[in-house]
Specification:
This protein has about 350 residues and is mainly α. It has a domain of about 110 residues: Tetratricopeptide repeat domain (Serine Threonine Protein Phosphatase 5, Tetratricopeptide repeat), CATH 1.25.40.10. It contains 17 helices and no strands. The protein starts with about 20 loop residues before the first helix and ends with a helix.
Length: about 350
């Protein structure tokens, strides 16, 4: 049995905030409490309030502000001698690093956060940090390495009855099954995640689960309208909570669904929109994936083959540099699909 989802990153005076609070409300409340703690000379409270500020900025796509905020939270926690608060700040920093495509830094910060969480006796931040490491590996395509960790974290979350973390783990495992072609298994896991999230009132987790379901429905069933309906339902939650990153990925998925349906002009428009959103928030993975979808759509709409080959070759180099192996394989498949193989693309780039 799962209880109502909660947001452990909202700490100290901010524990009254809901997991579904709008990010502008979180930012306003966090900033007010942070300033009050600083004026009163209470670094421990400043660290806890600063964590919420950092997370609100990150989820709003304000990466520079988020970077300053998590570092300030860490310094305040260190000044207070609060090991667990230091761990939470490092978790926030590691999550931001992953969002920005700095995967080695993300791994380093998240490992440190897990270690400090264990030393500080905070099992939640330890679990979130290990989850962050698992997600980093999954995004990079290291499924064998992180699959067992995902399963371990899922078992721990189920045992504690922690809905939000259970939903996260189910979605990560589902995504790996989807990417390796086990679509029925992926659908069942996304469906379970959506059900748990809905009952726990976790709108963020529910929105991500609906996005996963839409993807599988589009690929497996070819049911474009149902997929678009699921994405519209998810978008409502993203907008209510002002989840900039989740909304951009929702828009990119709309492009995917429309592209598969052969509706290439509509797909192009959604990929262009997502690309603009990802660029505004400095999210290189989403930007690269949107560029890939846009290149495929433009090719279907008659773009010159050499231009397509050049674009895909540049994308392949970009993804190799970022360290996204699964996404690099997606480029290779696009080159094959569009008849601009890697050799032709390399020649076009020269």
């Amino acid at each position: 049995m799962y209880g109502k989802a909660f947001a452990p990153e909202y700490q100290g005076p901010l524990t009254t905030l809901s997991v579904n609070s709008s990010l502008t409300d979180v930012l306003a409340a966090g900033t007010e409490q942070l300033r009050a703690a600083e004026r009163a000379g209470r670094p421990g409270e400043a660290a806890r309030s600063g964590l919420a500020v950092a997370e609100a900025h990150r989820r709003l796509g304000r990466v520079e502000e988020a970077d300053r905020a998590w570092k300030a939270s860490y310094r305040a926690a260190r000044a207070a001698g609060d090991t667990a608060a230091m761990a939470w700040a490092l978790w926030s920093g590691g999550t931001l690093a992953r969002q920005r495509g700095a995967f080695p830094l993300a791994r380093r910060l998240l490992r440190l956060a897990a270690e400090l969480g264990e030393h500080g006796g905070d099992v939640v931040v330890r679990g979130y940090s290990l989850a962050g490491l698992a997600e980093t590996g999954r995004i990079q395509g290291d499924y064998e390495e992180v699959g067992r960790l995902h399963e371990q974290l899922l078992a721990e979350a189920r045992r504690r009855g922690e809905a939000r973390h259970t939903v996260w783990a189910l979605e990560g495992i589902a995504q790996m099954h989807r990417n390796t072609g086990a679509l029925d298994t992926a659908y069942a896991l996304f469906e379970e995640a959506a059900d748990i999230a809905a009952r726990a009132e976790d709108r963020r987790g529910h929105a991500w689960a609906l996005r996963g379901l839409a993807d599988v429905v589009s690929v497996r069933d070819g049911d474009t309208e149902r997929a678009l309906g699921l994405l519209s339902e998810a978008e409502a939650s993203c907008r209510a909570m002002q989840l900039s990153g989740a909304l951009a990925y929702n828009h990119k998925m709309r492009g995917n669904v429309l592209y598969r349906a052969g509706r290439h002009p509509e797909a192009r428009a959604w990929y262009e929109r997502a690309l603009e959103e990802f660029r505004a928030m400095g999210e290189p993975r989403g930007e690269a994936l949107s560029r890939l979808g846009l290149a495929k759509s433009l090719a279907r709409l008659g773009r010159d083959r050499h231009e397509t080959a050049t674009e895909l070759a540049d994308l392949a180099r970009t993804l190799e540099r970022i360290g996204l192996r699964h996404a690099r394989d997606m480029v290779a498949r696009a080159q094959e699909e569009l008849g601009v193989g890697a050799d032709a693309a390399a020649g076009a780039a020269r």
